[in-house]
Amino acid sequence: xxxxxxxxxxxxxxxxxxxxxxxxxxxxxxxxxxxxxxxxxxxxxxxxxxxxxxxxxxxxxxxxxxxxxxxxxxxxxxxxxxxxxxxxxxxxxxxxxxxxxxxxxxxxxxxxxxxxxxxxxxxxxxxxxxxxxxxxxxxxxxxxxxxxxxxxxxxxxx
Length: 158
Prior knowledge:
Low-confidence stretches: 70-79
């Protein structure tokens, strides 16, 4: 789980940016609340929500459905007919690639970046390797890693 800035809407010149908690590898849901939604009944214990202004997006297509969501550990579950976050955006990606970069220490210091739809050439060196998907049906974003090598504080770790 990580925090990420994501941008939605067209034109690309004026996207609407949200800070979200991400878990790309589970079957979580991405639900944007439209600015016209009635939030009067939202618990006052919850933080204010940023809303999506669908009027500012030339490609927005409304579902015109009402739903109630309940909170579960780390995710918000909506109606069962919603696809996962990645399945919602996979059709508009430049490439079917997820690049994960991490420079955290064993004390949790550092940062991470997940680039969806492109190879992260800013953080990743040219010696990266492609890891194919394991299960395409049930777990479409699963992959197998047989070993990991890294340098941690000047020491190679396998």
